[in-house]
Amino acid sequence: MTDEIVTSLDVADGTATVSLTGEIDILTVEQVRVVLGEAVARHPQRIVVDMAGVAFIDSTGLGALISAFQRARDAGTRFCLTRPGDNVRQILVLSGLLEVVELIP
Question: Is the dihedral of CA 24, 30, 35, 37 positive or negative?
Fold first, then answer.
């Protein structure tokens, strides 16, 4: 059984929106790293990671988000997360990620 994650990147009006769905874990994290890297490379004013469709995220997924946040910050790009489900939000809180990465409605 293979995990499949669907990632998409949409850039409009200075905002790059990365939509993630499925489970973000060791089997799918490379796809997440690639799409987040593409978002940073486009030099938008802001990157918004839409997590509404994410059912689960593990430490490798958190690492990918932290890495992208750092690259965006270094490029002068605002990096935000939005719409995590309750379970994913709890993981984000417990990991301390929301202490450094902005969560927007």
Answer: positive
